[in-house]
Recover the amino acids of this structure.
């Protein structure tokens, strides 16, 4: 049985502008909020070294220190790069929440899409 | 050749003028810049050995992506690539999300390219004695000029990409030969490599930026409606593209990890250019300066092309305001979509740090690959092999889909290690955007028009 053809409403110019701006604001909010709140980027810690003023103290061998110098670094300027490390400690609760958000998102996506897809198929091929 | 397609009754359509070489140039052109910058943040997250393991794991992920993509794209050949595929296989909301993944992945990559190009010009300018050289004007100039080129026409755009990409690839090969990989005169892996500074968790974490070696290769199918023979050109261009990238990634890792201490390499903005500096060879430095410039330009160029096609397709299908679905009457390009995305790229290139911009691009790609692994299982179930004509059938199904899903899941954890806030912020954005689409925007969508392929009714519907 043929499903009646759905005729969408016509969107006004203001409505089109509003929808475009809404998406734009959403994009900037999602991407800049972590930056603005200084939550972006990995947590870093400093490792302890023997002596920040010498290559040997920074744990660099002769070949490594020669390359640092060719790149224009001295022990003092290279020390922040050498001693900085990502902090990979994490809370299992945070991991679980993140996993739930990602999995929940895909479940929502597939469930709503299926509902819409059935309408598409019924209009294209008729009701089963 | 000016063959046109008439879709949804549009009087003006995109031109079918591209061949397999353009498809290769579009795919590799977007991605090759990943060897010039960004991949090395994987070294920062886990050390050089971890980055190599990430390079291989990501290579496996993208081989699965290329296999799956070649089958689905050669069967669903329409502008928008994965976006058009999801409309036919999963449904409008999924298609809307996939369209956004594509726009984000490419627009952020475009911004990353502009940042790198600006940084390089500033660095070389300062080396040449121009202490006041500043990156910002070059960032703006790059984005605006390439947007104008895209506005003018796709053939010229991708022909320029073909030339820039070929030169950038040759530059990597020449540098690799220039460091004499058969000797220890310049490379000294034994003294420079230092194992796994973070242990095995660093290997997992580095998978995050490992994707950057290849991110965007799936962009080849964005040109599906502008390719003369999609069933032949798309699989050929994509598969040769991934092979080119595997070779370039291996060479890049080998020469950089043998020249630079991992602590420097892990945060460098232009690692291949730095590698050339360490050879003390002026011709190699000039060549890699040109290679980095060309690779960023080719990538940004391809990104504008792909992001605007995805945005245009969504406008044409009413997922976004229909105003975006217009084709330029003379240039036959999606000109409004191109212009609209310019300020978005500019704002990110201007205000956001490189690793953040890259992370947002990677996350968009990761969501897309996760979806692709599920989509191909639906595709085979809804239209079994003998029910529709496929341009290419990928082997060992469902193994590539399962491997892809497993590597994607691991990569989410890799992103969580260090960039968990961005991951959650991105997911919140997509959840809000999905609710907005389902409860508001979907009412403007013509239901039956979402399925344009001449296929039988899908099994189970």
């Amino acid at each position: 049985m043929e499903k009646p053809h759905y005729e969408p409403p016509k969107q006004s110019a203001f409505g089109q502008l509003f929808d475009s701006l809404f998406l734009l604001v959403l994009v900037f909010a999602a991407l800049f909020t972590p930056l603005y709140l200084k939550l972006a980027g990995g947590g870093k810690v400093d490792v302890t070294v023997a002596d920040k003023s010498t290559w040997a103290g920074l744990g660099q061998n002769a070949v490594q220190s020669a390359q640092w110098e060719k790149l224009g670094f001295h022990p003092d300027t290279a020390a922040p790069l050498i001693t900085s490390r990502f902090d990979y400690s994490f809370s299992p609760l945070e991991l679980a929440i993140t996993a739930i958000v990602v999995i929940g998102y895909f479940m929502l996506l597939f469930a709503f899409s299926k509902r819409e897809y059935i309408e598409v198929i019924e209009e294209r091929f008729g009701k089963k | 050749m000016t063959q046109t397609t008439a879709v949804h009754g549009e009087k003006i359509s995109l031109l079918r003028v591209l061949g397999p070489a353009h498809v290769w140039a579009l795919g590799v052109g977007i991605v090759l810049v990943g060897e010039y910058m960004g991949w090395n943040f994987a070294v920062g997250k886990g050390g050089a050995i971890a980055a190599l393991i990430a390079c291989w794991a990501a290579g496996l992920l993208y081989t699965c992506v290329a296999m799956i993509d070649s089958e689905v794209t050669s069967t669903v050949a329409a502008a928008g690539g994965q976006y058009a595929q999801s409309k036919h296989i999963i449904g409008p909301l999924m298609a809307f999300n996939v369209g956004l993944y594509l726009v984000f992945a490419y627009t952020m990559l475009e911004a990353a390219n502009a940042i790198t190009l600006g940084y390089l010009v500033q660095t070389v300018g300062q080396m040449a004695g121009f202490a006041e050289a500043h990156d910002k004007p070059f960032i703006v100039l790059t984005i605006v000029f390439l947007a104008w080129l895209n506005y003018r026409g796709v053939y010229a755009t991708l022909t320029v990409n073909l030339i820039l990409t070929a030169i950038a690839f040759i530059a990597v090969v020449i540098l690799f030969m220039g460091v004499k990989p058969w000797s220890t005169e310049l490379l000294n892996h034994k003294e420079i490599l230092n194992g796994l500074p973070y242990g095995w968790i660093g290997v997992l974490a580095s998978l995050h930026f490992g994707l950057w070696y290849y991110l965007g290769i799936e962009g080849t199918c964005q040109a599906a409606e502008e390719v003369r023979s999609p069933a032949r050109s798309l699989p050929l261009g994509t598969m040769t593209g991934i092979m080119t990238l595997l070779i370039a990634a291996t060479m890049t890792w080998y020469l950089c990890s043998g020249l630079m201490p991992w602590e420097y390499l892990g945060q460098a903005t232009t690692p291949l250019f730095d590698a050339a500096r360490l050879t003390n060879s002026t011709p190699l430095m000039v060549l890699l300066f040109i290679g980095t410039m060309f690779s960023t330009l080719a990538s940004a160029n391809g990104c504008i092309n792909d992001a605007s096609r995805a945005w245009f397709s969504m406008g044409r299908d009413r997922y976004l305001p229909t105003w975006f679905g217009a084709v330029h009457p003379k240039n036959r390009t999606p000109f409004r979509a191109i212009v609209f995305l310019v300020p978005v790229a500019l704002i990110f290139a201007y205000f956001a740090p490189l690793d953040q911009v890259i992370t947002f691009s990677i996350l968009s790609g990761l969501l897309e690959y996760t979806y692709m692994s599920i989509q191909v299982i639906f595709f085979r179930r809804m239209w079994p092999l003998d029910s529709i004509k496929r341009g290419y059938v990928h082997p060992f199904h469902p193994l590539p889909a399962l491997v892809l899903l497993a590597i994607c899941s691991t990569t989410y954890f890799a992103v969580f290690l260090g960039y968990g806030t961005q991951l959650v912020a991105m997911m919140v954005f997509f959840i809000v955007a999905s609710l907005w689409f389902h409860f508001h925007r979907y009412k403007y969508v013509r239901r039956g028009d979402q399925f344009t392929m001449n296929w039988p009714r899908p099994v189970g519907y």
Observations:
- Residues 1-11 of chain B have pLDDT under 50 and may be disordered.
